[in-house]
Amino acid sequence: MQPDLLPGPRAASVLYQLRSTPPLVHCMTNDVVQNFTANVLLAIGAAPAMVIEAEEAAQFAPVASALLINIGTLTSASRQAMLAAIHAANESDTPWVLDPVAVGALEFRTQFAREILALKPAAIRGNASEILALAGEHSAGRGVDSADDALSALPAALKLAQLTGAVVAVTGEEDYITDGENAWSVAGGGVLMTRVVGTGCALSAVVAACCSLPGSRLDNVAAACQFMKLAGEQAIAASRGPGSFVPAFLDALYGLKAEALA
Ligand SMILES: Nc1ncnc2c1ncn2[C@@H]1O[C@H](COP(=O)(O)OP(=O)(O)O)[C@@H](O)[C@H]1O
Ligand SMILES: Cc1ncsc1CCOP(=O)(O)O
Ligand SMILES: [Mg+2]
């Protein structure tokens, strides 16, 4: 399959919708990226809430617009809380998104991620090594960063999408987004995005926000990828390295214009 470039006007209209009805994203994410994820959601125009206790998470998932499950620092307790939140989300039709951080490299999280694939994620967003491993393919990943090329993981993304019904986004130098039938590609960004922690995790939170919006879920997830690519590119042009990239990136997300996407 040869993915087409996501048309700019589609991304522009998703940004417009997101800002007209700001989604409230229930984030169950890893300990490393909590603050950055919340700031990215606020900068783009969505709202974050980090609710992690099992009882509260099950209560909050139905209230939220979308739920993010990121297994970057999974523990036995967070595993139970995540399961409770996913079940509550499914009962109330709240879309939930999986970020399979470091799947393949470690047994406990790999088993958990495979188990919750049966619980109907709306979308899955990971780097190439994670998507390959989650699909049961050979992956060169050893930790949270990818050691594989995103295009090489597109067949695995297609397979996962067909197996689960989720829209799958595999990210890297270029991003590929598929519902198992059609695929978009999204270009842009830059390597500096991999020299700060949390860009992938924050993207998954933006994907969750976009999954709550009306319209084509495939287009909505691809638009989320496009927002991060364009803001990343603008931030790289305005910064001198990882330290100045982070504030420039938040500023670029905040200032992102539908016209620039279109
Ligand atoms: N080599 C690259 N060139 C341009 N953009 C990149 C590159 N690698 C990653 N990105 C971008 O950085 C963000 C995080 O993606 P990625 O590094 O794949 O996820 P993760 O942080 O989960 O490993 C995405 O927006 C992606 O498009
Ligand atoms: C470094 C690290 N360790 C466990 S989770 C995490 C953050 C990973 O962030 P990202 O996937 O966005 O690079
Ligand atoms: Mg990641």
Automatic annotation (TrEMBL):
Family: Belongs to the Thz kinase family.
Keywords, comma-separated and alphabetical: ATP-binding, Kinase, Magnesium, Metal-binding, Nucleotide-binding, Thiamine biosynthesis, Transferase
Binding site for ATP: 125, 171
Protein name per Swiss-Prot or TrEMBL: Hydroxyethylthiazole kinase
Recorded catalytic activity of this chain's protein: 5-(2-hydroxyethyl)-4-methylthiazole + ATP = 4-methyl-5-(2-phosphooxyethyl)-thiazole + ADP + H(+)
Any Pfam family: HK
The EC number(s) this enzyme carries: 2.7.1.50
Gene name linked to the record: thiM
A molecular-function term among this protein's GO annotations: hydroxyethylthiazole kinase activity
